Amino acid sequence: MATKKKSTKAKSKSAAKKPAKKVVKLAGRKPAAKTANGNGLPRPSTKPYGQAGKALEGVRILDFTHVQSGPTCTQLLGYMGADVIKVERPGAGDVTRGQLRDVKGADSLYFTMLNGNKRSITIDSKHPKGKEILERLIKYCDVLVENFAPGALDRMGLTWDYIHKTNPRMIVASVKGFGPGPYEDCKVYENVAQCAGGAASTTGFREGPPLVTGAQIGDSGTGLHLAFGIVCALYQRKRTGRGQKVLCAMQDGVLNLARVKLRDQQRLTHGPLTEYSQHGEGVPFGKAVPRAGNDSGGGQPGWILKCKGWETDPDAYTYFITQAPVWGAICDIIGKPEWKTDPDYATPPARLPRLKHIFATIEEWTKTKTKFEVMEICNAVDIPVGPILSMKEIAEDASLRDAGTVVEVDHPTRGKYLTVGNPVKMSDSITEVKRSPLLGEHTEEILRLLDYSGGELDAVKTSGAITAPEKGQAQAA
Ligand code: COA
Question: What is the pTM of this model?
Answer without folding.
Answer: 0.90
